[in-house]
């Protein structure tokens, strides 16, 4: 009991500390000062009156939302005496693996730099700056020669690293038993089984109304939908992040989604946000980074070739180039055990005082990175807003899909969850695929690593991401991946090679996400 | 140079055939271009006085030059269950026809029951062809009343006037869905007057009888148009065209194996329309687009029209700005022009299916605004068909699948750009192939050579009956007198055609069994 209380006060202290430096804090302070002029604020009951004033004027809601937003990325509870790196990632072997993976990426980036003799960064000449500014809205029309550039890594390479993860303290020499994990991921982490998932995703149950289940019928919108839209409008009117998050678990109506997501992510589009975006843009115009070429290449290889997202090519460049310059992204390394790559000013290699993070946001783009942004283009049309939403989505969720950690939403846990769901609930299928050399994870990994972006139809993808936001968890990705295998199980039982299995699952763009999830979670015999 | 009367099967050279297959289907391959010369034109215009004359001409089998179709000797006819089809188009259409159970292909001079012809064949042969009752052909005799840009505008203007007389101004205002348009050279003076009234706006000049963006240019100064006039008089029209588009005419104008040199000689004077250019198009991702929607007309008197659920938005590859008025690629969304664009990349899609477009709009503007936009589009289809209802020679042998090109502006108002009688049936991607084969299959279901339908269907596959001598209600039974009328249109909605067809044909079979 005492322990819990002190935990709580610790969390409060940390959040207060964090918010003190924020813009919101300054605004609240200003509002409080200004309120002193008002007749209803009395000196004798100053504290209570100001509280009341905040409540009436909606500032309390804003504070609540900010606290809620902080909590969503707050590290899992741990011993107060644990050193900071333990808070990010308790397992040493994970930290070690991550370290050597980061070294590999850096090496690859450096060697590309040397091979092509292109500097990591350079200031653009004025003429070039002007040119870039002129075509800011049509960067996609540029066709630079990128044949020499290659993505630093692709999800496939990352999967190999995860497969080789081992816990040195864990001896898996036991003879085969029903407990033996037959999948590719061989680290002992606790993942949920179906009864636990049922409890966790209780709002997805068969008896709860869901958007994304019946809305493709021709009948006029059902009672549930009308009611759901009405409640959604109410939630938006209240401007309450927590309510919005609960609400969205049943899916978001198309017309309200953009606002609901912004509310959940606590993004309000203040004038200073526009200013901040403009600063990033100026930075892009002034400096040319090597990673820009990687971003370019990635967009060309992925989003521009996508039937859904090709239209948004220009937005993607704008967002991703600004993202790479955004040092506020570094903040997420407070709870991400990855460490941002460093580079040194020429001739000062190894001298910490000359070290800078490279790229400035600390994130090296990889093959498929732009697909995290692409679906958001469907919802947000002003670049600065699109940018903010993406950044928040990244620092809350997407970073977990390409860093090694034991977090339940981390990619390692997702892989393990996927494999254990298949092995436990579809043992025949799992065994069959394993025997023919088509380990299911080899097929599903790319889906999960991209949060299914580019694999599902956009409307279905947005319904899926509704649930990611609603549950503040990426575990739904692993459940869906398993559900897809379950859905195509009959065909998969007939294949005899990895290529054939891949062919069966090559196109999942026709699948309906919510029925699949429901059937897998709530109609599977456990 | 002239093709055989029966519309030869096309180039024998396999390379050429390939080229044709890979290029887009042309709207009117050189057909109406020849209308420039007076005699042809008179002959053609002669056919539009009234339906009776046209029918008489067609049903006169005495003349030996007349070739009969669908005729076969009594006994043979009884036995033959198969449907003989003919087409000159080598694309998705051929795939669909060949895969249709019970249908057999007829080549060259063979007799046919179903002919998906191109419009040039129609022009040369229709009046000399006798057709049996069951025979069906894929165009109306004078479809150009709707599909030639200048006639369409003329008909719409007339229809608008008529509505204003009969039903008042508000009703007439419902026809204001086409930009201000003048026919050149004959309305040149009216145009100049209008031009001077609105200085600074942009105009677009389009040849009336060509499709796929050929010969189009934009202008803002009257001087440009002066040059253009001189150009036409001096037969130097070609030099005014933008070169990239020019070079593709050859490739794109499908059926006829000729080269552009010969083509040029055949254009003495070309009619153009000058149209007010819509300067505030709706943009997605900074790009301009237009919508392609398919409407199937089975009869004009009474008007029976079906609307297909699927369609697509075609995106311009470059970004929209009015500053680069010379850059043709920005403004035209025709796929044929797109393909000549320097940064065209065949791997990149340029299309969104209508469902996706509808969803995008709904997430941005809410479902009500989208409903309104699509209702406005329904209005365009109906009014435009009504405007030519009395002019088009109604003939029970004919049906026609139109491709409507619609532009949306920033106020979410739809504008009718043009109507194509031969919408491209060549697929540009897998998704596109699926759309077009389904579209054609459903067209054949509605045409119903097999005689399976009762004629009371309101939906067949992806087609919804939109107009049946009056608006069609979505609900069963007579329309609610209170005015809760919901039209039977589902453009851009889910197209669960397979399930619908299965159910439809199943219930038709049950009905047949119980009645027989």
UniProtKB/TrEMBL annotation, chain A:
Domain Rab-GAP TBC positions: 251-472
InterPro entries on file: Rab-GAP-TBC_dom, Rab-GAP_TBC_sf, TBC1D19
SMART domains, per database record: TBC (SM00164)
Pfam families: RabGAP-TBC
PANTHER family listed in its UniProt record: TBC1 DOMAIN FAMILY MEMBER 19
Protein name as it appears in the record: TBC1 domain family member 19
């Amino acid at each position: 009991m005492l322990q819990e209380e002190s935990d709580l006060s610790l969390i409060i202290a940390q959040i207060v500390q964090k918010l003190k430096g924020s813009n919101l804090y300054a605004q609240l302070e200003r509002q409080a000062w200004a309120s002193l002029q008002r007749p209803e604020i009395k000196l004798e009951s100053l504290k209570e009156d100001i509280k009341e004033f905040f409540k009436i004027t909606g500032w309390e809601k804003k504070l609540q939302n900010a606290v809620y937003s902080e909590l969503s990325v707050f590290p899992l509870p741990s011993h107060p005496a644990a050193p900071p790196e333990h808070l990010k990632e308790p397992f040493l072997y994970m930290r070690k693996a991550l370290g050597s993976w980061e070294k590999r990426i850096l090496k690859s980036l450096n060697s590309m730099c040397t091979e092509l003799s292109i500097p990591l960064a350079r200031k653009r000449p004025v003429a070039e700056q002007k040119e870039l500014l002129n075509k800011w809205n049509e960067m996609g029309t540029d066709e630079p020669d990128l044949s020499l550039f290659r993505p630093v890594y692709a999800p496939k390479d990352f999967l190999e690293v995860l497969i080789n993860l081992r816990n040195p303290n864990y001896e898996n020499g036991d003879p085969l038993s029903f407990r033996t994990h037959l999948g590719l991921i061989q680290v002992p982490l606790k993942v949920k089984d179906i009864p636990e998932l049922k409890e966790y995703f209780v709002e997805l149950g068969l008896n709860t109304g869901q958007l994304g289940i019946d809305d493709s019928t021709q009948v006029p919108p059902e009672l549930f939908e009308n009611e759901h839209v009405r409640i959604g409008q109410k939630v938006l009117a209240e401007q309450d992040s927590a309510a919005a998050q609960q609400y969205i678990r049943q899916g978001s109506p198309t017309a309200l989604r953009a606002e609901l997501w912004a509310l959940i992510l606590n993004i309000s589009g203040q004038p200073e946000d526009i200013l901040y975006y403009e600063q990033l843009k100026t930075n892009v115009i002034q400096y040319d980074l090597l990673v820009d070429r990687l971003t370019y290449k990635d967009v060309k290889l992925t989003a521009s070739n996508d039937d859904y997202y090709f239209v948004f090519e220009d937005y993607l460049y704008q967002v991703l180039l600004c993202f790479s310059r955004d040092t506020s992204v570094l903040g997420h390394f407070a709870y991400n055990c990855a460490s941002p790559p460093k580079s040194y000013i020429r001739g000062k290699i190894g001298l910490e005082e000359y070290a800078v993070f490279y790229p400035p946001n600390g994130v090296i783009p990889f093959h498929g990175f732009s697909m995290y942004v692409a679906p958001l283009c469907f919802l947000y049309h002003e670049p600065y807003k699109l940018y903010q939403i993406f950044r928040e989505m990244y620092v809350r969720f997407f970073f977990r899909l390409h860093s090694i950690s034991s977090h339940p939403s981390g990619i390692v846990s997702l892989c393990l969850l996927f494999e254990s769901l298949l092995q436990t609930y579809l043992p025949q299928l799992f065994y069959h695929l394993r025997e023919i050399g088509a380990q299911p994870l080899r097929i599903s990994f790319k889906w999960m690593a991209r949060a299914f972006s580019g694999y599902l139809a956009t409307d279905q993808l947005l319904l899926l991401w509704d649930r990611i936001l609603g549950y503040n968890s990426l575990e739904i990705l692993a459940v869906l991946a398993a559900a897809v295998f379950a859905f195509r199980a009959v065909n998969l039982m007939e294949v005899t090679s990895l290529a054939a299995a891949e062919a069966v699952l090559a196109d999942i763009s026709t699948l309906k996400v919510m029925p699949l999830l429901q059937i897998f979670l709530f109609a599977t015999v456990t | 140079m002239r093709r055989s009367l029966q519309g030869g099967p096309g180039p024998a050279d396999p390379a050429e055939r390939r080229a044709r297959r890979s290029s887009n289907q042309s709207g009117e391959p050189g057909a109406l271009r020849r209308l420039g010369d007076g005699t042809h034109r008179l002959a053609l215009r002669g056919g539009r006085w009234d339906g009776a004359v046209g029918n008489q001409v067609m049903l006169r089998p005495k003349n030996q030059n007349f070739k009969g179709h669908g005729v076969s000797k009594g006994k043979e006819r009884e036995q033959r269950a198969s449907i003989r089809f003919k087409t000159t188009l080598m694309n998705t259409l051929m795939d669909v026809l060949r895969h249709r159970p019970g249908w057999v292909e007829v080549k060259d001079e063979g007799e046919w029951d179903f002919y998906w012809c191109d419009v040039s064949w129609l022009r040369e042969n229709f009046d000399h062809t006798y057709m049996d009752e069951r025979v069906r052909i894929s165009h109306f005799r004078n479809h150009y009343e709707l599909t030639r840009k200048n006639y369409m505008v003329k008909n719409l203007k007339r229809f608008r006037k008529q509505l204003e007389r009969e039903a008042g101004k508000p009703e007439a205002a419902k026809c204001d869905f086409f930009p201000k348009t003048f026919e050149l050279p004959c309305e040149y003076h009216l145009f100049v007057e209008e031009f001077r009234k609105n200085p600074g706006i942009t105009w677009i000049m389009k040849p009336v009888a060509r499709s796929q963006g050929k010969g189009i240019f934009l202008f803002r100064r009257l001087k440009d148009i002066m040059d253009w006039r001189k150009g036409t008089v001096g037969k130097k029209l070609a030099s005014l065209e933008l070169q990239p588009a020019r070079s593709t005419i050859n490739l794109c104008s499908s059926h006829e194996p000729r080269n552009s040199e010969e083509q040029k000689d055949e254009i003495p004077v070309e009619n153009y329309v000058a149209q007010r250019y819509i300067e505030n198009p709706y943009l997605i991702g900074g790009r301009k687009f237009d919508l392609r929607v398919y409407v199937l007309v089975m009869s004009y008197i009474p008007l029976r029209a079906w609307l297909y659920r699927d369609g697509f938005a075609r995106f311009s590859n470059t970004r929209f700005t009015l500053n680069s008025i010379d850059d043709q690629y920005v403004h035209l969304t025709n796929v044929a022009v797109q393909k000549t664009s320097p940064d065209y990349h065949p791997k990149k899609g340029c299309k969104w299916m209508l469902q996706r477009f509808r969803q995008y709009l709904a997430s941005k503007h809410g479902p009500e605004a989208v409903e309104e936009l699509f209702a406005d589009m329904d209005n365009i289809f109906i009014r435009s068909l009504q405007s030519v209802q009395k002019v088009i020679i109604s003939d029970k042998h004919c049906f026609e699948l139109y491709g409507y090109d619609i532009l949306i502006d920033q106020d979410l108002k739809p504008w009718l750009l043009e109507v194509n009688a031969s919408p491209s049936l060549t697929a540009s991607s897998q998704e596109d192939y699926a759309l077009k084969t389904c579209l054609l299959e459903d067209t054949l279901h509605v045409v119903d050579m097999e005689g399976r339908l009762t004629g009371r269907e309101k939906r067949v596959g992806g087609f919804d009956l939109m107009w049946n001598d009056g608006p069609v209600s979505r609900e069963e039974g007579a329309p609610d007198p209170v005015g809760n009328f919901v039209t039977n249109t589902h453009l851009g909605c889910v197209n669960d055609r397979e399930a619908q067809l299965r159910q439809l044909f199943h219930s038709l079979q049950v009905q047949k069994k119980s009645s027989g």
